[in-house]
Amino acid sequence: MTIYDSVAIQQILPHRYPFLLVDKIIELEPRTRIVGIKQVTANEHFFAGHFPGAPVMPGVLQIEALAQVGAILALREFEDRDDKIPFFSGLDEAKFRRPVVPGDTLRLEVTALRVGSKVQKMKGVASVDGNVTAEAIIMSVIADRK
Fold this sequence. Notes:
By secondary structure, the chain is α+β, with helices and mostly antiparallel strands. It has a single domain (6-144), classed as Hotdog Thioesterase (Thiol Ester Dehydrase, Chain A, Roll), CATH 3.10.129.10. The protein has helices spanning 6-12, 59-75; strands at residues 24-29, 33-39, 84-96, 105-115, 119-128, 131-144. Strands 1-2-4-5-6-3 form a six-stranded antiparallel sheet, covered by helices on one side. Strand 5 (119-128) and strand 6 form a beta hairpin.
């Protein structure tokens, strides 16, 4: 079941191609938990250089995808979200467990540890076919765009 498709996601997030790294949201418990999906295709822009002949999605982009899903969880609570922008403020306990390659469906599960009007702290776990690929505690600040 799709809760937010790519059009709805772009109404919440400021990210756009080639840096929008979530295709849809399939689960949502407001202020608590969210699950997104990224279909990893062979024509992703980052595969051209990471690595030719052996394409692997960079771990930092998996963390960015988790952060974007977390930002959807947070920003959807703001009526004035068009005037807001999420910024990383910290990253703890990041671990990279296995490569993500073209054809993988990356599941991005984010659980809120602290959701406030300015500061967010969330636990993100990325996985493919039930196998964890990356995980981290992600902190962010919701700032005014001005």
